[in-house]
Amino acid sequence: MSLLVLEDVSKSYRRGSREQVALCDVSLSVDAGELLAIWGQRRSGRSTLLRIAAGAERPDAGVVRLDGRDLAERSSARLADMIGYCQKTLGSPQVETVLEQVALALLIRGVSPSAARLQSRAVLERVECASLANAHPSDLDNGERIRVAIARALACKPRLLVADEPTVGVDLRDRDAILLLLRSLADDGIAVLTSVGDSTGFLGADRALAMSDGRLRGELQPDLAPVVPLRVERHSSSR
Questions:
Q1: Is the separation of the CB atoms in 210 and 220 below 8 Å?
Q2: Which of 23, 160, 192, 226 is the one with CA 20 to 30 A from 53?
Q3: pLDDT at residue 223, as a whole number
Q4: How many Cα atoms occupy the beta-carbon half-sphere of 169 within 13 Å?
Q5: How many angstroms separate the CA atoms of 119 and 124, rounded?
Q6: What local confidence, expressed as pLDDT, does residue 138 receive?
Q7: Which residues contact 219 (CB under 8 A, 6 or more apart)?
Q8: 74-132 residue pLDDT tens
Q9: Of residues 96, 100, 171, 86, the one with CA closest to residue 138
Q10: Domains, the chain, ranges and CATH?
């Protein structure tokens, strides 16, 4: 059984007197350990699809199931803990360091401060950003920001990671390293659902689906060759 299943999902938004269809009868599934990329241009519906898959929005019609259970059920709060939604906006007046930013989701769930710091350091190490633990979020470059956002999404040990355009705005070196990271997370058994704006973004994916006008149009053929970073050294502890 697939970990994530969307069945005939539709979503529309009201724009004044007009209705804009974002998704129309979309169905897909993602298995544990699979990296699935959704390719599409702006306003294709890809971001709406990912928000609904992550439980951040509810569809107007259709069903989203995680591990066989409907995300819309009242008992779905525990299911939400199984989803890591990678949001790239970091920082708040109360959060002064990257470590605090990553630990915040754990503290909200009642994890003790000492355990939250320990888990947060572990996920920062996993995404090769341990040296940034004491940095302020505003001091990060785009590649570092994405990695920290992924770490924050991983803090609660999700079974599904959802990342909307994780390589947008980063240089080629950071892009390949981030794609390699997502591939390695899938290899660890996490289901990874991501969106991309061009074909270079689904290197290393198991599957890539094309999307336009709120509909999935078919499966592309991603390059299955290993994604290799363009530089060896990355976020060394001496930073």
A1: yes
A2: 226
A3: 56
A4: 11
A5: 9
A6: 87
A7: 207, 208, 209, 210
A8: 555 677 789 999 987 776 656 789 999 999 889 988 999 999 999 999 999 999 999 99
A9: 96
A10: 1-82+160-239 (3.40.50.300), 89-157 (no CATH)
- DSSP letters of the chain? --SEEEEEEEEEEEETTEEEEEEEEEEEEE-TT-EEEEE--TTSSHHHHHHHHTTSS--SEEEEEETTEETTSGGGHHHHTTEEEE-----BTTB-SHHHHHHHHHHHTT--HHHHHHHHHHHHHHTT-GGGTTS-GGG--HHHHHHHHHHHHHTT--SEEEEESTTTT--HHHHHHHHHHHHHHHHTT-EEEEEESSGGGGTT-SEEEEEETTEEEEEE----SPP--S-S--S-TT-
